[in-house]
Amino acid sequence: MSWFVLMSPPAMTPSLAPKAASLAAELQRRVICFAAGDELYAGEWLTNFQRAEGAWDVCVEALRPGPQPTCDAELLQEFCAQTLARLARAFAGHHPASAQRPQRDSLRALLTLHVGPSGRPEVWRQLALALTCADLWLGTWAPPLPAPAAASLEGGGSLPWEVRRELLALPAELLFCDRALPLDDLRLRQAAAGALLDACGAAFTELLLGGSGADAAKVSKERQSVLRTLAEWLRALRKALRLLPTHDPAMPLRVLVVQGDRLLELTRANPADASEVLQQLVRWHLKGCEKDLAMVLRPLLECLFNASSGEVCQSLLPLLTDLAGGCWPQAVLGDFDLDWHSIAVQALAAIRMAVEGAGLEETDGDANDAEAALAVWQTFAVTVREGTHGEPDLLEQLPGLAISKVERPEKRSRMFEEDEWHASPERIANCEALPQLFGLLASEMLELLHVPPDPADAEGLLALRDVRAAAQSTLSAWAVLVGRSALWQQATWSPLQQVGARLTGSGAEPLPEEAYREAEAVLWFSGTLAESWPGAMDGPGGAVLPPASAVLELGAALDAAPEQWRPLLWAAASSLARTGPAEYCQRLLEWTLQRPPTSSCYPELVQLVELPYAESIERLCRHLSTAGEVHVAVGERLAALAFEARPAAALHEDSVKAQSLMLLAMRHSMGSDATLLCQGLAQKVIPALCQAAEAEAQTARAERDPPWRAAQALFGTLSATLPAVAIAPNDRDHPAVGLWRDRWPYVEAALLRWPPSDASDQPHAAAAAALVAAAQMLPVFFPESVQVLARSAAQHELPQVQLEALRKVLASASCRTMDAAGLTELLNDNVLTAVEALLSREDALVANPPTVSALFRLLCDEKLRSLLLARPALGERCLVLVTRALPECTSADAAASILHFTAELVGSQDELSAEAAHRQMLVAAIPELCAAVCRALASHEHLAELDEGLLGAAEFLLRCSDALPAELQPALAAGLRGAQVAEWSSERLQRHVAGRADWPRKGEWLDQLQQIVCECQRERRRATLL
């Protein structure tokens, strides 16, 4: 970006707009002053010049003499070229229809004039941009071809290749992307799209062959530029076809087939950049061009894979992901003419590179590549199962659509006939290639899943945990495809059977440590697979056994492992054990309880093994509880495990979660006897925890960051006493009710008196989570839960945890059991009182977006919204916070919450007619609200994304347009002026809001709103001195 990008003052009024004659005389002097450092006054004048009537003509005249030799003249021409490029973005708005073609021709003449030997790139690039904008507005863009008699690089009578390449690249950059021209009218967009489609044959030929004669010093950069431009063209053409479905979608592909040799040459020389071209081709899911697409892809993929080195291999992951989402699964099932095996080899190589290049065994290894490589295989499995659906519509993925009653836009697959593909379950089950692929994947994955050679390598273990999380998702996706054929049996369970035979067949001879590394990985792998596929494996003598039964045969072998490997092996085996069916549950639970991995574990290992072990125990006990029997011995054992003492070094971020799972397992083991569970915990465990929590409270005020572990354990234990199903609203006889009533002072102390940790929000977080669960399962505590959470929110400066808990409590079924009058009184006296207290601490709230987000999400609750409609004074205070927080809010989540609340508070025309005081409040507030919304839209990039924030802003504008049309128009205009939005962008946004009824679907209206906001932000950035 040039240093001529200027500060943006308020727009000039027409009466102050200088005329063309005076502009021309003053322009040179102001440019010189600005270059000399007078950025304030000269910058303001130059910015006003770009907005003035006559600026276009003045710039054209300044450029008409051609390149000038003096520095001052060069500066002037550079500024004038930039001004023309800026104004050309709204070409049709600056020139009447009769003058548009002559003005376009004058740009072409200026470009020709400034590309000679003395031409400066700073000038001709801006003129090329202006010319391309004009051609796209007119719908007449055509590729710049060399003159028939002169095809040299110098161009002879034509434009030089460097300029032609620039003109070839610009159209794809100016349509269907964040730089898109503001072509508001559908006819204009279709005309521009049609121009690109009609010209693509000549454009591709010129692009691929035009720079083939570049000198050796520039050849690498030239190839890179050509490939990137081609990728952008393919992306733009694919989107253009959605606007013009009558065009032949295969025509661009046939052009590439003709230029196949040149494409292969470029691919061999620049495989990384060529992968971007192939990505766009793989996304060409359009009916009627499957054969043409395969003809292009086959040789290019073969060439690319052969040319890919190790470093390039990792850069192919985005391409492999796209292949996995379409062509590759279709090829595997015989529906697409492509070498699926070569793609699989490349996808396996990506996993292998993650192991060898950035492997987990290296202390500086990064697991990101491994996770991305596994995600490719997950995408493949999901696509086989679900088929392809064309490109997803981002609007379809917005959860706020349902909330704000937006009609869902027509799917893109209906706008243009996508190549949707689905394979029947029978075809998937009979496909022999799938188990072959899974067998190859399993082999590579097992290498990736090995623990570090040193089990005490904490960093390597943490990296392994991240990779296993990705592997778990991949295996879950593949598990749905697993069948009962012999090929599937071999692919899925042979690793487990081989490891079992090796462990049990060694006799007294010790095994090498590598055997235990392999065994641990296989046990984890098999458990993860069986978790999602509760099938069976073939056992000895033709028996059919659950995979979990294997652990019952391996106990002695695992117990004999070296001490440093035993905890890892036990934890992995427990993950497999928890997948067993109900008839094996008792035996598997006893086996697992006898082998707690934390009993002989390095502190570094605890974080890796404790939580999976607790999850396994909880799952097994859940199966145990289905019979309703009481297992007192199991419950006592679990209580001992949950509360066993451990050194501080063995505590980690998941310690409390693991303990809570143990307590939940204990509740399962008690079956239907809630009295026995509550009495058992109330006798010793809970009193001991209460004493420990009180001791923590005594020392907490002297600590900088108290951990509050005893308090967390106390509230986790109280949660474990809750019934699995909510009791009746008036049931006060359930044993958990009395236990909670006795310990209620500790809930109040944690939320109202004990000093919280700034780092973890404990004990607030633990107490609030327990209250949410109690309010749901013990409805008698719903009013008290609301009261104590509201009091805590009122007295703490940044009560994010309490506000989020209140929102969950109000959304629970218990809320619906209260009578309307009682609920209204409860919310008015507690929640809205807490809101008033928070609004009195406005400065602290504005500085903390997470708390602001939590507050406004709570206020979006329909019950609170109805109360705010009847309390306009409180609603006004909320809107004052909106006007302060929104303009400077850089948090996408907080901005979305604020905007959604504001739109909901506006409501409908009928609501405003019924609530006169509320309407009067909104009328008074709408100028400041529009100012805040406009400043936010013009400033924050996250509001230019098709996401919840932009949806909230759209809802606010549309509701105001419907309910307060007379008040919105002047307020919106003033807000856009205050946000320093360019005049033509301001008018465009106002027309778009006022013309909502002209759009048949709101989704399309939102698409165009996004383009307008992007343009407003682009103009603002241009008008800001960097």
UniProtKB/TrEMBL annotation:
Keywords: Nucleus, Transport. This is Exportin-1/Importin-beta-like domain-containing protein. GO terms for biological process: protein import into nucleus. It comes from the Eukaryota. InterPro entries: ARM-like, Importin_beta-like_NTR. It is found in: Nucleus. Its main location: nucleus. It comes from Alexandrium monilatum. One of its GO terms (cellular component) is cytoplasm.
